[in-house]
Amino acid sequence: xxxxxxxxxxxxxxxxxxxxxxxxxxxxxxxxxxxxxxxxxxxxxxxxxxxxxxxxxxxxxxxxxxxxxxxxxxxxxxxxxxxxxxxxxxxx
Length: 92
Description:
The protein is of the alpha+beta class. The chain contains two helices and six strands; from the N terminus they run H-H-E-E-E-E-E-E.
């Protein structure tokens, strides 16, 4: 049922030319090299250390591994991390 609704929403988004991330509540992840990582449309931080960050998403979680990871900016809809990003994993 959920995949049927998702498929319907994708078709509507395409018809109206609305970006999928808005209609489907998907995260937008932007990296600047391996130095900065911006995550938009998140649902909160699960775990945060200098070497590991886990972020709750609408569908699963984002796991970021690296060195000297610091929180550059935290807002309701976006999080900016700075440091050396070594690995990003999206778990559903």
